[in-house]
């Protein structure tokens, strides 16, 4: 009688949540994710320290021993533009110290942007570097699209979505069922054999960093190509779209924006409408006014043009809640428009706070430390997963948990897949593709079916 009751309970649990199915898809998620997670963890850790790394790289161009007084800022900008064939001034990064080399961003006819370093005294160009070739920009490109363009961006999005599935299923597998004590749950059992030790290191590490990893994976979605485009479309349909979104979905989007701006400027130049008309203050007068505002660096100053008749001043600090954008009257320097973070739509503010935390810049060194902890945890999870698999793998097969013989799918697994598939379209599409591939092909190939641990069709 007792055995019958236990069997009935077990059947009920299997109908709702099938432990073996969760374990199986956790295994597959790990196979998909691990190589990408290691790359994302390493490049993300580097990008957490962007301000510090760029300060070290640019140190040779700061606090220069000048041989005379600084030249007018307009002359410094002209020297930078002359250093780039076909270049036009885009913006100036305003430095707090006048002995620093001027950082002038020049855009060429194709929309490519070059950062030019100019000595303030003799106007000598001491360095030029394409914006997308700067060290931190390369790290960002690897992190976001694996140097593969839009295809790489979709691959990263796919890995992130499977990473979310991996964490969710991993938490279910970790959940202590009838286990007494905290050993193997919140701290590993290190003295009971290497096999159990590797299992515990994997499970316990996953428990401690799961919240951080989920946060990083979810907050990375606004940058993703498919999810980001869908998010923008939903905002458009609901009337909550931003006039100018504070982040891009891919580097391709950034390059398209640059090309469009370059084409517009080229059209205006051909028709003699590039420069703004009317009187305006000198670059140095505007720079002095902006320095007095004490905006969070880096501060970018864009001169008036026919497209934008006012000076545009923006703080591009990675701590996005501190960002502010101003427009200054060219003749008087008075503030014609001011937009702070608090003036933006609530959705943009929520995403902005999340992005700042994702980049490690929301609450200083502690934010960076948590990011590094999450990255180290991901690498540890990847290494311990490989060790657990290597020690438990059967001979001659992949080692995925086998499907149940009755072929039924638990209701809980269906709910989880549907919810995640709707919220994460790339994951949903990949699960459908895998299901079709398995049903129509893989189960019909005996050798492949055996190696993958699939039930016969």
Question: How would you briefly describe this protein structure?
Answer:
The chain contains 15 helices and 8 strands. It is of the alpha+beta class.
Outline the fold blueprint.
Layout: H1 2-16, H2 19-47, H3 50-57, H4 73-82, E1 88-94, E2 102-107, E3 113-118, E4 125-130, H5 135-145, H6 149-174, H7 194-219, H8 225-237, H9 251-270, H10 283-293, E5 299-302, E6 311-315, E7 324-328, E8 335-340, H11 346-358, H12 364-392, H13 411-423, H14 425-440, H15 446-452
Antiparallel strand pairs: 1-2, 1-5, 2-3, 3-4, 5-6, 6-7, 7-8
Helix pairs in contact: 2-5, 2-6, 2-12, 6-7, 7-12, 13-14
Query: Alpha-carbon distance between the termini?
Result: 36 Å
Say how many strands there are.
8
Strand order of the largest sheet: 4-3-2-1-5-6-7-8
Level of helix content? 40-55%
Please indicate the percent range of residues in DSSP E strands (runs of 2 or more).
5-15%
Q: Please identify the structural class as seen in this structure.
A: alpha+beta
Rg, rounded, reads: 28 Å
Shape: elongated
User: Helical segment tally?
Assistant: 15
* SSE order: HHHHEEEEHHHHHHEEEEHHHHH
Largest sheet, strands/sense/barrel? 8 strands, antiparallel
Mean pLDDT: 88
